Amino acid sequence: MIRRYLVHAAACAASILLFGCGGEEGGTAERDTGHFTAKWTISNQRAPNYCVAYNATGALIDIRNDKEEFVAQIRVPCDQFESSIELPVDNYHASIVLVKENGDAVGNKIDLGTFKVGAGDDVTRQATFAMPPPGS
Q1: Cβ neighbours for 127, distance < 8 A, ≥ 6 positions apart
Q2: pLDDT tens, position by position, 47-98
Q3: What is this structure's pTM?
Q4: Which of 89, 113, 115, 127 is deepest in the core (most CB within 10 A)?
């Protein structure tokens, strides 16, 4: 639980670095942003017991811009099966992998491809981790 809060705090700090602090200070300009959402399934299922069966406690989403510069790395609970982030207008590339508590990968990393985020856009990519159903 503490780790989740630390990850959330790190994401908030990264957001401040990316977007600056809020407020109406003179001379600051708002940046146009959009949203990127990653959704995933395990064997085409959004079932928490699949996460448990494979010891997957989280999904790790890596986002880079088209210059291959690191933009964000998001770790969310596996059984959430979805995560969104606000991004500045730009071109991006993302990947996702399920991970154990210690960060070890569960299965293969999936390439979510390249995408462009425009002002006000909602871009969604989906991934299916091809694993046998639990107990088979």
Answers
A1: 38, 39, 40, 41, 96, 110, 112
A2: 999 999 999 999 999 999 999 999 999 999 999 999 999 999 999 999 999 9
A3: 0.76
A4: 127
Do residues 105 and 99 make contact, with C-beta atoms less than 8 angstroms apart? Answer: yes
Give the residue carrying structure tokens 């002002």: 119
Q: Which two tokens stand for residue 134?
A: 């639990």
Tokens, residue 28: 């600051």
What are the C-alpha distances in Å from 25 to residues 12, 21, 30, 108, 119?
20, 10, 11, 46, 22
Instruction: Tell me the CB-side half-sphere exposure of residue 65, using CA atoms within 13 A.
Output: 9
Residue 83 CA to residue 38 CA, distance in Å, equals: 5
Token readout for 7 is 């990850």
Query: Distances from the Cα of 105 to the Cαs of 20, 22, 87, in angstroms?
Result: 33, 36, 26
Q: Which of 51, 40, 37, 54 is nearest to 129 (CA)?
A: 40
